[in-house]
Design brief:
This protein is α+β, with helices and mostly antiparallel strands. It has a single domain (2-38, 72-136), classed as Nucleoside diphosphate kinase-like domain (Alpha-Beta Plaits), CATH 3.30.70. 40% of the residues lie in helices and 18% in strands. It contains 7 helices and 4 strands; from the N terminus they run E-H-H-E-H-H-E-H-H-E-H. The chain has a 4-stranded antiparallel sheet with strand order 2-3-1-4. The chain starts with a strand and ends in a 10-residue tail after the last helix. The structure holds adenosine-3',5'-cyclic-monophosphate. Residues 52, 57, 60-61, 91, 109-110, 112, 115 line the site of adenosine-3',5'-cyclic-monophosphate (CMP).
Length: 141
C-alpha cells in the first residue's frame, strides 16, 4: 500500500468542486487517511516547491498556491503514487486525457486544480512538510 500527497488548489476550492474531486478520488478506491483545509504560508510553499526554485514561474507558483485555501490530503492505495498521477492527468489541463481531474476542473497550467506527488520519495517528503512526521492515521476497516 502506498501513500501519496494530494492538494486541491485554490482555484478548485474557489470553484466549489472539492466534493466532486474527492468523489473522483474515492470512486477510484483511494482511501483518505488524512484531510484538512488550510492556507499554506509562503515559507512552507517555498520549501514544498523547492525543486522549482530556479524556474521562471516559481514566484507565480508560490503566489498562487498561497493565495487562498487549499484542501490537502494523504491518500492510500496500491501503487497509489502512479495511480493518482494517472487520475490527475497532465500538468496542462488542455493536454490532459478525458476523464482526468485536471481535464474536468483545471483552467490552465497554473490553475490546474490539483497537485499529486510524482514519486514515493517525494510523497514522503511532501506529507512530512504539510502534515508533520507525528500526525499519522490509518484507514480503519
Ligand atoms: P504541480 O503539480 O503543483 O507542480 C508544480 C506546478 O508548477 C505545476 O503543478 C503547475 O501548476 C506549475 N507550473 C508548471 N509549469 C508552469 C508554467 N510554465 N507556468 C506556470 N506554472 C507552471
Amino acid at each position: 500500500m502506498e501513500r501519496t500527497l494530494f492538494i486541491i488548489k485554490p482555484d478548485a476550492v474557489k470553484r466549489n468542486v472539492v466534493g466532486k474531486i474527492l468523489e473522483m478520488v474515492e470512486d477510484e478506491e483511494f482511501k483518505i487517511v488524512q484531510l484538512k483545509m488550510l492556507r499554506i504560508d509562503i515559507k512552507t510553499a517555498s520549501n514544498f516547491y523547492a525543486i522549482h526554485k530556479e524556474k521562471s514561474f516559481f514566484n507565480e507558483l508560490i503566489n498562487f498556491i498561497t493565495s487562498s485555501n487549499c484542501v490537502i490530503s494523504v491518500l492510500e492505495k496500491e501503487n497509489g503514487v502512479s495511480e493518482l498521477r494517472k487520475l490527475v492527468g497532465e500538468t496542462d489541463p488542455l493536454k490532459s486525457p478525458p476523464g482526468t481531474i485536471r481535464r474536468y476542473y483545471g483552467t490552465d497550467i497554473q490553475k490546474n486544480a490539483v497537485h499529486a506527488s510524482d514519486s514515493i520519495e517525494n510523497a514522503e517528503r511532501e506529507i512530512s512538510i504539510l502534515f508533520g512526521d507525528k500526525e499519522t492515521y490509518s484507514f480503519l476497516e
